[in-house]
Each structure stands twice: as structure tokens, then as C-alpha cells.
């Protein structure tokens, strides 16, 4: 069975999946990059050594070969690449899995824009009866596509699968520094790094030894620096510059709690995978795309708070620091959920199994995790902390 995967470029969040696919399929798996990676991404540590990767192909280097790989594949995974590059395959009725984050991260007016609706219906809604499925990289993806009547009954849970660190769980627990909290990422307005600082303002006088480390750069960093200085938080908040992913992982391993404060513009949030893999108890905004999939049961393998509600965020942190056994149990379950389900090896095995079934006219969905059915969720959180399926 041949599988081709086309996306904008190969990232550290997709490379582990590709490597495990190669282990299973050998030369029958190929990845096609539709563009060159931007320098900004490379400076953030996203650049990979591509030379010598037999499965890696660049569309611009050899368009004819790339098109042949896409057309000859038994199943194609089509991610963030121009529609025209795989339109021929779709119109030929060949089995295809389309890989998307949510469509409407900020410009909600586009939902009712006539041109937008026509374009999405033409590119997605016309394949209702074809062997075309939607890989949903985020809990709110099905709802966005449902607005165009696309992929009804054919939405699949998917995501990103960064490198899985095999450090034993018991060893990770020994590395944790008491009272340690971590926030990492680009300091953009929609990632809301300031919320972590607001929580520290409320907690510093109530939890002895509490300390927040923040790693990253961006437009919101001056605000973060200003808040730290104005509220005298220099002794309990440490600001660090961008680091390579491996260096960030070391901080995760030493941290007890990880904060994911992004709003709806966070399509997925692979740092959540990494933090859970590192044995952190994660407190996540309900709006981040990964949250409904990685933390399906609030309070079990992570805490979910209503985005922008500083009180909920602060209470969750306070509870975890006050209840050591609860924090440890939550962190262990977080690690286990990544080890058992949300990792590249398991995802590749499930993907291959699903594709084999697809070629036989079967739909081999799993009961949970990658390649299970994706519900149509509202971007709201019940008071009890459970997700609401949209009717």
C-alpha cells in the first residue's frame, strides 16, 4: 500500500509520524513539501535536516514527480497545501484524507461571506459521496466544516505528534521542582502569556515557593515584563528567550505544572503533547484546539479552564499546588495518555490500519484517540467541565 502525504513543509511536529510511517511502509510512504519553510520558523528551531531523507520531496524541485506520487498513491493525506496540487486526485475519486486545523480562528465574518461559502463548498462540500475524509487537528474542526455541509459522518480525530521522550515516568517525577510552573511559546496576543502573570499576582502570597518560568519572545513580551516589574514579581517569575525544542523539554521535565493559555487561534498546540509527555499537570484553555482531544475528561489527566477566566486558571493552579497527590496522579495520567494513544508510533499504526480498511470498503474507526470518530463540538464548556456535542 502506497501513502503520500502533502503539506506546506515538514515540521518537528510531523516528522516523527513520517518516520514511523517509513518504518512500516518503507519506500511506499512519501512526504511532499509544497513550499520552503520561512526563516522565522527556522529561527524558532523548526528547521530539520532534510538532506538524505529518501521519503522527502519538494514540489517545486520536481513538480511532475510530486504529482505522480500523489496520483499513484493508494491513499493520500492532504494537509496545508494549495488545493490545485491535489484537485486532480480528488476529482478522480481516489481515497483521500484531508488534514485541517479549524477554519475560522478569528475572522468569523467569513462564515457568512458569499465568496467564502462558495469556495469551501466547491473544495469540500462536493465530495460527500466520495472516499474523502477529514482528519481533524483540533476539537473544533468538525463544526467549522459542518457550516458548509462537508464531511458529515466522515470526521476523524487527529492532531500533531511531536517526538515522544521515553524517559521513564518514575524518573520524571523525581526531576520535578516543587512549586514550579512553566509557560512556553511565541508571546503573541492570542496566546495570552499575560494570563500566567496575572495568576502569579494572585498566588504569590498564598503558595510558598511558587515559581513561574516563561520561555519565548514576541509582541506581548514588553507587557509581560512591565507586569512583572510593576507588581514586584521578579523573585517568582523568570523570563527566558527562545530555546531549541530539546532545551524546552528539559524545562518541562523539571516543571510540575504547565500552562496553555491560548484562545481560539491556537489550532492545536503541540506543546501540550510535549508537556504531558514530560509528566506535567497541564492547565489548558478550553479554546486551544488540542484541549478537547488531549484532555477529554476535565480533572482526570489535566485541568480545563474557560479561556480568559483568570479566576478559573488561578484556582486550578492553586488546587494542584495544594494537593500534591492529585497533581502527581494527574501528571501520571497525562503521561500515560500520550504514551498509549497520542504518539507518532500509535498514530501511524492506526493510520495504516484505517487506510487498509478504506481500500477494502471498510471504515475502521477506533474507540478513542487518533482515528476515532470526531464529534461536532461547540466552543463552549459546561460548568461541570465536560464538552458539549453540537446537535
Supply database-style keywords.
391 residues; alpha/beta; seven-stranded parallel beta sheet; six-stranded parallel beta sheet; 15 helices; 37% helix; 16% strand; globular
Share of helix, binned: 25-40%
Main β sheet profile: 7 strands, parallel
Strand content: 15-25%
Strands ordered across the widest β-sheet: 3-2-1-4-5-6-7
Radius of gyration: 21 Å
In a nutshell, what does this entry contain?
Helix content is 37%, strand content 16%.
Q: Would you write up a description of this structure?
A:
With 391 residues, the protein is α/β, with parallel strands linked by helices. The protein has helices at residues 15-25, 39-46, 63-72, 87-91, 114-123, 141-146, 169-175, 194-203, 221-230, 245-254, 270-277, 291-294, 310-322, 324-340, 344-359, and strands spanning 3-7, 29-33, 56-58, 75-78, 96-100, 132-136, 155-157, 180-184, 211-215, 237-240, 257-260, 281-285, 303-305, 377-381, 387-389. 37% of the residues lie in helices and 16% in strands. Mean pLDDT is 92; it is low at 382-391.
Strand and helix map with partners:
Blueprint: E1 3-7, H1 15-25, E2 29-33, H2 39-46, E3 56-58, H3 63-72, E4 75-78, H4 87-91, E5 96-100, H5 114-123, E6 132-136, H6 141-146, E7 155-157, H7 169-175, E8 180-184, H8 194-203, E9 211-215, H9 221-230, E10 237-240, H10 245-254, E11 257-260, H11 270-277, E12 281-285, H12 291-294, E13 303-305, H13 310-322, H14 324-340, H15 344-359, E14 377-381, E15 387-389
Parallel strand pairs: 1-2, 1-4, 2-3, 4-5, 5-6, 6-7, 8-9, 8-11, 9-10, 11-12, 12-13
Antiparallel strand pairs: 14-15
Amino acid at each position: 500500500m502506497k501513502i503520500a502525504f502533502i503539506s506546506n513543509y515538514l515540521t518537528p511536529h510531523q516528522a516523527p509520524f513520517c518516520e514511523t510511517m517509513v518504518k512500516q511502509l518503507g519506500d511506499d510512504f512519501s512526504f511532499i513539501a509544497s513550499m520552503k519553510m520561512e526563516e522565522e520558523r527556522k529561527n524558532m528551531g523548526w528547521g530539520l535536516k532534510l538532506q538524505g531523507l529518501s521519503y522527502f520531496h519538494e514540489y517545486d524541485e520536481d513538480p511532475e514527480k510530486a504529482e505522480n506520487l500523489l496520483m499513484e498513491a493508494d491513499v493520500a493525506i492532504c494537509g496545508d497545501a494549495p488545493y490545485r496540487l491535489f484537485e486532480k486526485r480528488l476529482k478522480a475519486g481516489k481515497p483521500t484524507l484531508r488534514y485541517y486545523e479549524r477554519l475560522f480562528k478569528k475572522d468569523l465574518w467569513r462564515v457568512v461571506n458569499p465568496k467564502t461559502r462558495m469556495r469551501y463548498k466547491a473544495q469540500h462540500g462536493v465530495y460527500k459521496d466520495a472516499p474523502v475524509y477529514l482528519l481533524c487537528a483540533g476539537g473544533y474542526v468538525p463544526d467549522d466544516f459542518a457550516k458548509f455541509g462537508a464531511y458529515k459522518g466522515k470526521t476523524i480525530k487527529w492532531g500533531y505528534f511531536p517526538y515522544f521522550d521515553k524517559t521513564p515516568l518514575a524518573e520524571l517525577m523525581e526531576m520535578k521542582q516543587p512549586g514550579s510552573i512553566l509557560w512556553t511559546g511565541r508571546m503573541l496576543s492570542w496566546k495570552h502569556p499575560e494570563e500566567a502573570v496575572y495568576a502569579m499576582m494572585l498566588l504569590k502570597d498564598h503558595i510558598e515557593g511558587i515559581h513561574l518560568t516563561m520561555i519565548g519572545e514576541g509582541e506581548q513580551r514588553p507587557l509581560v515584563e512591565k507586569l512583572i516589574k510593576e507588581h514586584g514579581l521578579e523573585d517568582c517569575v523568570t523570563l527566558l528567550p527562545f530555546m531549541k525544542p530539546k532545551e524546552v523539554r528539559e524545562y518541562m521535565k523539571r516543571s510540575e505544572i504547565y500552562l496553555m493559555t491560548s484562545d481560539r487561534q491556537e489550532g492545536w498546540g503541540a506543546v501540550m503533547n510535549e508537556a504531558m509527555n514530560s509528566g506535567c499537570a497541564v492547565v489548558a484553555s478550553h479554546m486551544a484546539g488540542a484541549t478537547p482531544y488531549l484532555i477529554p475528561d476535565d480533572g482526570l489527566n489535566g485541568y480545563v479552564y474557560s479561556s480568559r477566566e483568570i479566576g478559573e486558571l488561578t484556582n486550578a493552579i492553586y488546587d494542584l499546588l495544594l494537593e500534591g497527590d492529585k497533581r502527581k496522579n494527574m501528571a501520571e495520567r497525562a503521561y500515560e495518555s500520550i504514551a498509549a494513544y497520542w504518539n507518532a508510533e500509535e498514530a501511524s499504526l492506526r493510520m495504516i490500519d484505517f487506510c487498509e480498511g478504506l481500500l477494502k470498503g471498510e471504515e475502521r474507526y477506533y474507540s478513542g484517540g487518533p482515528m476515532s470518530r470526531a464529534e461536532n463540538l461547540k466552543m463552549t464548556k459546561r460548568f461541570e467541565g465536560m464538552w458539549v456535542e453540537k446537535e
